[in-house]
Every structure is written in C-alpha cells, then in structure tokens.
Amino acid sequence: MCLSIDLNRNHEPLNQRTEGVADAATILFNLPDYRVLSAATGAFGQRRVRVCATATPGCPDCGVVATRKHSSRVQRLRDVPVAGPVEVLWRKFRWFCAEGACPRKTFYESTTQVPRRARATRRLRDALVDAVIDSGRSAAETARAFGVSWWLVQKCLGLSAAALPDVNKSSPTRLGIDEHRFRSVRYFRDPNTNAWRRSEPWMTTIVDLDTGQVLAVVDGRDSSGVGDWLQARPLQWRLGVQVVAIDPSAAFRKALRMWLPRTAVAVDAFHLVKLANDALTQVRQRLTQETKGRRGRSGDPVWANRHLLMCGANTLSARAWDRLQTVFAVDDPTGRLEAAWHVKEQVRSLLHAGSLADAAVKRQALREAVQSAAQPETSRLWRTIERWWEPIEVMLITGATTAKVEANNTTIKNIKRRGRGFRNQSNYRSRILLTSARNSQA
Ligand SMILES: [Zn+2]
C-alpha cells in the first residue's frame, strides 16, 4: 500500500503564493527556506518527503537575482530524523543568469541550509556537532542515532574546529602550559636493534589563563613542540604575552626563553608542593629500609600515617597534630623524618609568602632547615627551589598558576574516556579545541 499526500501539484515555491502562510507539512518538517511538496509512505513503511527551496536565488558570480528556470533534478539530502528517519528529496532547480554580460549562463540554486556541493543539511551538521561536543556523546553513538556514517560526524567536527576563531587574532596576556598523556604507554620493537622500546605519547596543552580557553594542543612535552607553536605566532602576539605559568619543566622553560624572552615565567605552586611531598616520601621509605631492613607495613606508625605526613601543618586538627607528634616520638628514632617534614613545611610556607621580602626571609629559613636535615632528597629539593627562584617570585607577585590548564586536562580526560581512546591525533585535537571553545563561551 502506498499512501501519498500531494500538497501542491503545480510545485510553485511558497513566496509565489501567499507570503508567510505555510502548509501543515512544511511547518512540521521545519527546514528553513524549504517547502514540503509531498510526503509519502512507501511499501516498507519508509517515509519520503519531497521539498523545494522557497527563495529565488542570485547568480553565484554576478549576484543578479534569477527570473527564469532552466531545468531541475532531484537531490537526496541527509537530514535530521523528524519523528523517525525520513528520506528527503530536494527538487533542485537550475536557473538562467539574468545578467547578459555574466560569463556564467546557468547555475544550480543553493540555500543556507544546503550550500553548494553540500549533501547534508546545516541543521543536521549542527545537531551532530552539538551531540558530540555539548551532550558528550561519542562519535560512533551519534552516527548510529542519526543514521549517518561515522565519517560524516567526524567531518562535521573537523569543519567546525577549522571555523573556530584564529588564535593569531586573539591577544592573550597570560598563558598556562602543562602536559598530559594522550594515550596509554605502548611498547614497540625497534626495527634496527630488535629491542623493545617504551613509548609514552604526551601532548602539551596551551591555555589562555584569563578565559580558560585552550589555544593549542601540541605533540610531545619537549621544548620543540611548544617552541614550534610559539614560533608560528606573529611577533605582536608574542609581545603581548606578559606571564606564562608552567610546571617545573626545563623543556618548557627553554622554549619560553627562546620564543618569549621578555615574558615573565611563573612556576606553579602546586607542582612544587608535590616535589616537596615526594622528597618527604622518599626520605620515609629510605629510613624504613635503613632502620628495619624492609618496606613499611601497616603496623608501622610512620607507614600508617604516611598521608598525614603530607598534610599541611596549618590544616591539621588538634587530634591530627597529636597523632603526628606521636609518630615522630615513636617511629622516628633518628629524628631525620621530622627534619625532612620541617623542610616540606618550610616549602609550603615559602609558597604562601605575602611579599618578596617575606619570601626572602622564608628562603633563608628553608636553607637552614635543609642544612640541618642534611639528607640527599631534601638537598635535591633545595637545588630545584634555587634553580626556580625567579619563577617562584613571579608566581608570588602575579598569582599565575596552571590551575586552568589542569581544569582543561580533566575535560580532556573525559573526552578520551568517551571516545575510548583516540587513534587519530587531529580528531582528538579538534575535539579538545571545540569543547574548550564551547565551555569558555558558556
Ligand atoms: Zn551571473
């Protein structure tokens, strides 16, 4: 059985009839600039909607509005499901150009919804991008739900990312740089030596700290990835950057010294606190090995309170403070763990200094704490602090941190989880840039 409603047998565009009055099918179908000519149900229940454009087009070369039709053909359009899948057929006209001097004699009409050479409607493209970026659906699931191919979803995402505002036109004053792992660790066999090699695919995120928007995601975490990206920016753009916040990475610092020599570099306080905590943990593990000849166990007060050791002294409750004192009294016969703990506390207090003068005083106190601790781990920490002293001062003055980069790294992790990992780096990159642009707009 074939059921068909022919709404307008003479197939005249809407604007040649009563302007602004549309029929029920056109209202329900709701494709801007199009009118439904007929809707039919096929023998297998498939629905077929025939449409035509309502506006008279202008010539793509000279712009003169056409008056005379040449011919027509039927083009199949991919569109959003309207109450279920629909096959959309567009009766597309070829028009004569009304300008006699124009080299183009005839042309096919195009609309905002379906530009020249497009085979999918704009509303379908927008819906696919919204589903992946705003609603956080995977490309494969979106493709299934809309009845299109995975490649179309990916192509729409790529085009949308390419249409994002040009980074060179922005003028960020504060940047944040941090790395994240793009995929899990892989092992591959080196073809020359036939030995197994470990590969850790890292990528570096560059963020505008004022807007929180990701400006770029570059390969690797060495100086060349960031350096090449900075080199590609115009001089005016680079001169506009006043502060860059990084983690204590010599590679990033090298790239910044090369391409942003006049920019102040701030080191992120959180990463330095982590270094201090790591040093304390190493001291604890070494002392346990030295005094007990084994690893820490749950029966050892030091091991049981290993997380308490890393808490800031200013955040401890009275009970926690008592517990900490008991740990030092019972399970630290040499007093070296307590000395290392004081170094860690001194680093924390230094990073919260209110002024540069205050920081200088605290630096001196830290130096004394390190000298009295006299342990390799804390001495190494001291050397790192010394090496990064200037960026620490910049951090204290400007308050620039990589917190917004870390926030973006969380978003990036979610993108990775949703896609169950990415094999194509440029797809991955466009997904990150689009999501970040939407988030900062919101
Ligand atoms: Zn023309």
Mean pLDDT: 88
The CATH superfamily of the largest domain bears the name Ribonuclease H-like superfamily/Ribonuclease H
What oligomerization state is this entry in? single chain
Tell me the overall shape: elongated
CATH class of the largest domain: Alpha Beta
Helix content: 40-55%
CATH topology of the largest domain: Nucleotidyltransferase, domain 5
Structural Rg: 32 Å
**Poorly predicted ranges (pLDDT <50, ≥5 residues)?**
1-19
CATH architecture title of the largest domain = 2-Layer Sandwich
Number of domains: 3
What distance lies between the first and last C-alpha atoms, to the nearest angstrom?
50 Å
Task: Provide the structure class.
Answer: alpha+beta
Topology pattern, helix = H, strand = E: EHEEEEEHHHEEEEEHHEHEHHHHHHHHHH
List cofactors, ions and other ligands: zinc ion
Q: Total number of β-strand segments?
A: 13
Give me the number of helical elements: 17
Strand proportion: 15-25%
Largest sheet: 6 strands, mixed
Could you explain how this protein is built, in words?
The protein is α+β, with helices and mostly antiparallel strands. Helices cover 45% and strands 18% of the residues. The chain has 17 helices and 13 strands. It has helices at 24-29, 122-133, 139-146, 150-162, 223-231, 235-240, 250-259, 269-292, 301-304, 306-310, 318-331, 336-351, 356-373, 376-387, 389-398, 403-418, 425-441, and strands spanning 3-6, 34-41, 47-53, 69-77, 86-96, 106-108, 174-181, 186-189, 196-199, 202-208, 214-219, 243-246, 264-267. The strands form three sheets. Strands 1, 2, 3, 4, 5 and 6 form a six-stranded mixed sheet that branches. Strands 11-10-7-12-13 form a five-stranded mixed sheet, with helices on both faces. A hairpin with a 6-residue loop joins strand 8 (186-189) and strand 9. The relative contact order is 0.09. The model is unreliable at 1-19 (pLDDT under 50). Bound molecules: zinc ion. Residues 59, 61-62, 64, 97, 99, 102, 104 line the site of zinc ion.
